[in-house]
Amino acid sequence: MPTRIKLEDGQFNLVEDPFTYASDDEDLPRGDLIISLTRFQAEGERLLSEGRSVGVRLEPAEEVEVLAYDLPRLSVIAVSFPKFNDGRGYTAARLLRERYGFKGEVRAVGDVLREQAGFMVRVGFDAFEPADGSTPEQWAHAARRHRHVYQRAADHRPPAFAERG
Amino acid sequence: MYQYDTLDKEFLADRAAEFREQVGRRLAGEITEDQFKPIRLMNGLYLQLHAYMLRIAIPYGSLNPTQMRALAAIGRKYDKGYGHFTTRTNLQFHWIKLADTPAILDELAAVDMHAIQTSGNCIRNTTADPYAGATAEEIDDPRVWSEAIRQWSSLHPEFSFLPRKFKIAITAAAKDRTAAKVHDIGLMLRRGRDGTMGFEVIVGGGLGRTPYVGPTIKEFLPVNRLFSYLEAILRVYNRHGRRDNKFKARIKILVAALGAEEFARQVEEEWAKIGPEGDLPDTEIARIRGAFAPVHFDTLVNRSEIFEAAKAADPQFARFARNNLREHKRAGYTIVVISLKAIGETPGDATSEQMEVVADLAERYGQNDIRVTHEQNLVLPHVKLDDTPAVYAALKAAGLATPNVNLISDIIACPGLDYCALANARAIPIAQDIARTFADQDRAELVGELKIKISGCINACGHHHVGHIGILGVDKKGEEFYQLTLGGSGAEDAAVGSMLGPALPAGRVADAVDTLVDVYLRERQEGERFLDTFRRTGVAPFKEAVYADAD
């Protein structure tokens, strides 16, 4: 079974992935699935009624707003980074957590590099499929690199101005 | 200036440690240059024509003497004994070895400096009025807001991978010395009718291939709502700015495509959703304000006998005083502008020795305060008129007393083909040619304020679009040619210059400028600057003279 790095209770671990990705043109396998937004809009209702856990893979141009009413029924939002420097996914993750209070998994997929760990954790990602073969230990190291942060974000770390009291 | 607390210092130490580790991985061959590139670009390290270039942030152009000495020492130890001050008020070293960069960043962190976000598609150094805290024109000190923006934008988790780089300028004076209207965001501090402070927010100005003077999208943003509003602008841009073509990726293209009104509407909508939750508490702004080192002014009279006597005794000092001193808000004080445009030298360059002289002067006569201007000069913002003869003598001995601020030889030029991999043509030799043509200081003063700006390629790092005379280097079948534009301005009367005519070969540029100046001297009316005359007469007399010469 494939794996991904999962952040739980402040720990980064390599964890088996119970979800299967299904592209738009293949027959749906059994079990829990991550599918495109288009496919979710067409078939999501049915899949959920079958009792499956369903996740949606969001491409950068697809905005989280379109999922607003479906979020409580979704288990995973896989936010896609076709290139590491396409920063739209950071906004997507932050809005999912801060604006929509999404409690499920927000997973970074695509060109996901350990240099991005700190930023990704701060905007609310809690699962990662690194493209650079990096390990949970390396992610933990990179994400905890900075003792202080200057902004409020989705990770609830106290920003500098709060630390200063 | 702003005093770093433990937290600010630890932040920089952590960042320097991170980069040391990343460089280690590169040097050990664990990652390729391609993989390393995005990492080094987060730390201001560029690979240029001859070597690595390290760009060090000088937040809102503000330095203390200790920092200036550290820059001088780095220049001496790791570079060729000089550095280059940029139009973003940063400092570049052009001859750096990769293996030295971690040590350099440590030395910088030791004096509260860094190279964070001096490159990459993130929020870059904010520019502020170099006369902040010294000019009587301002309604508040823009450095307080600049420092708050520096902190808020440092390693911002959501906005570190924008479609393109992002630059903010702040001014609190009616006379704009920051080029706010040609920035991604220009903030102009205003006082409302009821006495409260707010920002006029200008978005989507810019230079480069498609220059725009930015439209105002909000007339009066209450100051305590600044950060939620910035977040709204950046979020709209991060989501909707173009990412398919780097030449169309700046926010100006998005604003122009949507129209300022629609862009403003989207920002307002997002801003309403963010709410005051996204703002910095007033107490933090107050803390930052309090963390600026206090400046102690003596009570003096306006007239300084020492200053007057020195002017009468030494015409060269009198000339320096006319051109390089600016009015201070306090009686008996002045703002000293140090030109880094010595005739025949590279605009913006300073040697390590010169940096040390400026540091010493700031310590002895200038309340430990040094500024860098976007026009690539330095400023001692608080000097007693009584001390100006001594300051002048020290500057003169160091080759820093060129009396040409805002005059024709006070030229902005990008590094051009001498250093930059993107350039099509050289910029520095053209600046040197022009400066030599106008080496006669009487004539330069007669001409008065004339801003020449030179870029070695269409990316416009030399801001040629907003030069009173702009010069753009282009490549024509392997030969360097120069396109002249007239009538641009980066100040409060911002405008993009218009084309004079066909491009000229390198050897003819200085002569053409000379001709343009002759036309101005002939046509000008009482009190008109070059720019004013051009705006009144239009391009015709200038064009006729330059191209008549050619025949």
Word description of this protein:
The complex is a heterodimer of chains A (165) and B (551). With 165 residues, chain A is of the alpha/beta class. Chain A has one domain (3-164): Alpha-Beta Barrel (TIM Barrel). Helix content of chain A is 27%, strand content 22%. Chain A has helices at 37-49, 88-99, 117-123, 136-143, 160-164; strands at 3-8, 11-16, 20-21, 33-36, 54-58, 76-81, 105-110, 127-128. An 8-stranded mixed β-sheet of chain A has the order 2-1-8-7-6-5-4-3. In chain A, α3 links the parallel β7 and β8 (127-128). In chain A, α3 (117-123) crosses α4. Chain A is globular and about 55 Å long. Chain B is an alpha+beta fold and 551 residues long. Chain B folds into 4 domains: 6-110, Sulfite Reductase Hemoprotein, domain 2 (Alpha-Beta Complex), CATH 3.90.480.20; 142-290, 2-Layer Sandwich (Sulfite Reductase Hemoprotein, domain 1); 305-397, Sulfite Reductase Hemoprotein, domain 2; 412-550, 2-Layer Sandwich (Sulfite Reductase Hemoprotein, domain 1), CATH 3.30.413. Chain B is built from 18 helices and 21 strands. In chain B, the strands form 4 sheets. In chain B, strands 16, 17, 18, 19, 20 and 21 form a 6-stranded mixed β-sheet that branches. Chain B has a 5-stranded antiparallel β-sheet with strand order 1-2-5-4-13. In chain B, β14 (370-372) and β15 form a beta hairpin. In chain B, α7 (251-258) crosses α8 and α10 crosses α11. The longest helix of chain B has 22 residues, at 6-27. Chain B starts with 5 loop residues before the first helix and ends with a helix. The A-B interface holds A 60, 63, 84-88, 90-91, 94, 99, 115, 118-120, 122-123, 132, 145-153, 160-161, 163-164 and B 5, 7-8, 10-11, 14-15, 17-18, 22, 35, 38-39, 42, 121, 151-152, 154-163, 235, 238-239, 243, 273, 277-278, 280-281, 283-284, 287.
